[in-house]
User: Fold these one by one.
Assistant:
Number 1:
Amino acid sequence: MAQPKPNKVFAPWDDPDAKPIIQFKNVTKRFGDFTAIDNLTLDIYPQEFFALLGPSGCGKTTLMRMLGGFETPTEGTILLDGVDIGPVPPNERPVNMMFQSYALFPHLSVWDNIAFGLKRSNMPKDQIGERVERMLKLTQLGKFAKRKPHQISGGQRQRVALARSLAKAPKLLLLDEPLGALDKKLRNETQFELMDIQETTGTTFVIVTHDQEEAMTVASRVAVMVDGNLAQVATPDQIYEAPSSTYVADFIGDVNIIEGVVDLPDAEVPDGAVSIRWSPTEAPIIAMMDTALPTASACHFAIRPEKVSISTEKPEAKNVMSGKILDIAYLGNISTYHVEVAPGLIIKAQATNVRRLSRRNLTWDDHVYLSWTDTAGVVLTE
Amino acid sequence: MKLRRSFLIAVPYTWLLIFFLVPFGIVLKISFSDIALAIPPYTPTLKDGFWQMLSGLDLENYAFIGAGAVFALFAVVVISIAMFQIVYPRVRRALIPDARYGVFDSAAAALTTLAVALVNVALIVAVLGLLFPALKAFVDIPDFLYFAAYLSSLKIAIISTFLTLLIGYPIAYAMARAAEHWRPTLLMLVILPFWTSFLIRVYAWIGILSTEGYLNQFLLGVGIIGEPLAILNTPIAVYIGIVYTYLPFMVLPIYAALDKMDDSLVEAAEDLGCTALSAFWLVTAPLSKPGVIAGCFLVFIPTLGEFVIPSLLGGSNTVMIGKVLWEEFFNNRDWPVASAVAVILLLILIIPIVLFQRNQQEADQ
């Protein structure tokens, strides 16, 4: 798993000398009896594209609104560049927000919407024009400068909102579900646009989303939130490949989770691996693990469907299971096979459709073998 | 299908039109007749046939109340406004070539335009006066009472609309900002006074405002004043009565406009560097403008012809055209002159009503 990384990768969170731009220190936020954020500590570094991901009601929007200044923490402090921003009102923070509803001013033209923040700053008038033109060019809105928000499309409105929040060159840009109102194709294009703009401007972005694909695509780091807590904060690949809990594994993407107990160490198990007994009759699962687990402790084995290979003949692998195909989901480029390996236990395996559908040799009720290596999955204790 | 729809629409509108046009026609007819000691108290005009009436048409009732002067004043105001609307954008462009201007630049341009428009109108009036000397007779006012009553009604209507806006806006704003579950109750409280008769509520104000009334008793008891204030039978009482009565008509449209507004707009304005006050002026105020205009017209139009409030709360020196109309009809029994007053009042009201309609259409778009 630990492959050597290329040089000069952007990873300030691994650098002990890096200075975070945002620090949440034991922040708690309560609304009456309801605790939205529970004793949360988090560092966000300059130029990061940081995603807050979680189901609705997990507190991610509250966290963002505290950064924007629209909510104040009940306990704890939030530092921006080392300065406590608790008492600073929203209009004095070097932070701008792109609202979920875009919140474009309907009575102002696109040009005036973008210039709105600049006019409130002490920027000289002639520079405002230049800055607005730059923003229009960056977001490719030049043709629409004179239109009112209701005269442009949803995608254009989204870009106006982005241009408006970027116009003041904030230290930190907050994006609250920025692409929620766009259709899937436009959303994919816009995600790459967002990443380009983030790279061009070098602004720190914090994005709130419930769409895990979006978070994985755009973010340098993802924080998975659950019930006001951080379940895991890591890079998208770590979140995906090495989730810290079954919750994170299940929340991000598709996963097979097999419950079991750690078996007695025996000769067949290599060093640094555990064998997990998940059924009294079948062979245990062998998986590599960094830390040793005590014998007979309960654990979960999680493996992504694309890391499970499916074949009609018994392969040579560390882990092999046999079963019957219950269902096939055909997605065009890939197919997902639902294979029942034991009564009640269904494992999903994904295979690329290298052949056309008519030439596929697997079909319903076929007896197949599933296999994976000892490093393909992870063992989770939470 | 289309026929059925037009029929459905036609029925109520025909009904409304008939009951507007028939009384108006009767009033118009009476306004052309002469006063007589008879029942009804005017000379019949239609007895010799319609053409006979037209040929012998006399406008002496209109001349008597100074309708010509009212018309002339109105024409001047309308031409001034039209001129202002034509000239203002050009002046602004000429004075401020840059697209980005401030409030003071706009105010300067507006003042310049106003001066230009007034000078132009004065020139037009002077030229017309020179060319047609007969116009002098047209604007002659034999009895100043009616002209003064129109002007005083206009003044009272404008001031009380402004006062109602001043009080109504904060109420509507507070209602729109109140917690979601409180709003139906607050809305109910605004509508609640309509459950009692309007007349009784105005009478109640007599009890409050009179020299021995509750207000004076309270102020005397607290010791703020040494002797009772004379509020009843003064213009102040009329303003209090009008503002009280028409407040819901101001609050409801403004509340509707504010309620529709997305809360995140104000947050966005603050996020972009506005203080709470400037966010209000730059975002909330412009977005509630359609509601404010609708409310102003809903107060202004009925106030202009108001009769009950000035006659109950106002003194003899509060002259409003509605009261004059009533006295002309019932005290003087001069139906022809009273009808002429009513017709002119209606014509004056058409202008704000048309403006109101245009505002509603713009708001719908």
Number 2:
Amino acid sequence: MNEKTIVHIKNLNHYFGGKSLRSQVLSDINLEIKAGEVIIMTGPSGSGKSTLLTLIGGLRSVQEGSLKVLGWELYGASDEKLVQVRRHIGFIFQSHNLLEFLTARQNVQMALELHNEPDRIAKVKAEEMLHAVKLGNRINYYPSDLSGGQKQRVAIARALVSQPKLVLADEPTAALDSKSGRDVVDLMQQLAKEQGCAILMVTHDNRILDVADRTIYMEDGRLFKEVVL
Amino acid sequence: MLLKIPLAWLQLARQKIRFIVALAGIAFVVILMFMQLGFQDALYESATQVHQKLKGDLFIISSQYKSLTSQQSFPRSRLYQVLGFEGVESVSPLYVQFSKFKNPQNGEKNPIYVLGIDPAFPAFDIPEVTQNLDVLKFPNRVLFDQASRPEFGPVVENFHHNEPVSVEIFPYNGTVGYQVNVGGLFTLGPSFGVDGNLIVNYATILRIFQDRTPEKIDIGLVTLQPGTDVKRMQAALTEILPNDVKVFTRRDYINFEKDYWSVRTPIGFVFSLMVFMGFVVGVVVVYQILYSNISNHLMEYATLKAMGFKNKYLLDVVFQQALLLAVLGYIPGLIISYGLYDVASNATQLPVIMSPNKLLAVLISATLMCFTSGFFSIGKLRSADPADIF
């Protein structure tokens, strides 16, 4: 595993349910994500894509195999450790999940609360980030006053403001029309390239596959093929 | 972790109507607690004001004594036994008796509490009584408690107009009245058991109540020589006197009376229960707010957890909200309670008074109340699982 590797997965298995009802959701996953890479993962629903994302994101405990994120081994990691790892990952969800009682700027700034930035600097960074996602004129708007695409852009700003080395995105365009979906993905790709940040994105949206450096396909808990575009 | 974004406050303040309704609910509970405590204290305060104003260091009562309003006599000779003791400076008897006082205006008879003292000894630590001691040396002259309830008629007004105030006092079950003149006023105030007070020469009591004899007294006041150890004297007198009497210090005597009202009468229980009920209502109100705040934002909270916020951060938010609600609900509750205390004490003539103890007691229970709700609502918070939002 060299310096440029952000995620390194080896022989990862995962199961749901106990004893008699136990079913395998991930089988023998091997995957490597390098710095700055944009990877799109597709596959039918129920194939285990989300489970893999939650494992990489430190939101679930690893049961079998090795999973290294940003140099930390997550197999056998304590909850405390998982929380630490999460702070270095940007998350973007299908719905924006913004706190509706905070303004766009405050929502973005929440991500910096975890990094002990002085208030003044955090504010400036949050505003710069909102400018970067072309919402410089919506800084003090509440989410309820923003359109779906704008909200998702705030969510992107929130995920990227602390300059994570890895962004995990789960169908970020699913709730958006094609135009805003395209904008959002372009923005993600552009910012990720600028910051040298890797993106692992789950999507069913065929129109955005072209932003990927690599596309991987999952079915029945196996990473079936790897397509180099 | 420094709180640069006051999440707790911003969340509450964003839903203004709900926030104001919540504060109104808490203020209401605060008022409820203040009123209950106010009346409860007024009950104890008014029930023991005779005890607080009596002169003397030790008080002798019958061992059958239950409370001031259910008087029980004992032999006067017990008092003279005490007088022989070294360290005792003086003793004085007190005769008490409920009687009926005829309202001079409409003729209605209302129960009044009559305290018969020896005019040689001002049994009460009330300046107006000491000044008017000579009045009591005349036969048929009495002192009227000007803080008595208004049912007794315009006694005070007439007295101030220098009109001779002649009133009739009846034995409790008698039909033949006894004419007395009000020769002075003093201030003691009614209680839950007594509507008004008269201080008379004990000879007057013996005349009104033909069945009473001077040998049977109700309370014995014992004054000790300065520097005498009250506790030790109490023990010594208890040792030497027969079992038909008890010897109390002032503190014992006051506590005995308080216990009667809080334990023996339903009223003490009612007040405690009402305070508790108010508390429960408050817990429910605050729980509703906190719980709905959490369940409406479960996804967002799960997102915060995914971003690396610990459970503790979110717990802090809930408890900060609880504290904010408690304090911000307390302030209007307190202000309104001040006004209601005035109304209540004017209407009842009872000492319903704001005190530092009450301020603190209600603040603490309001805070406890909100924290209790916090504890009930955080169970929901744990169900915000970041693995579920992918």
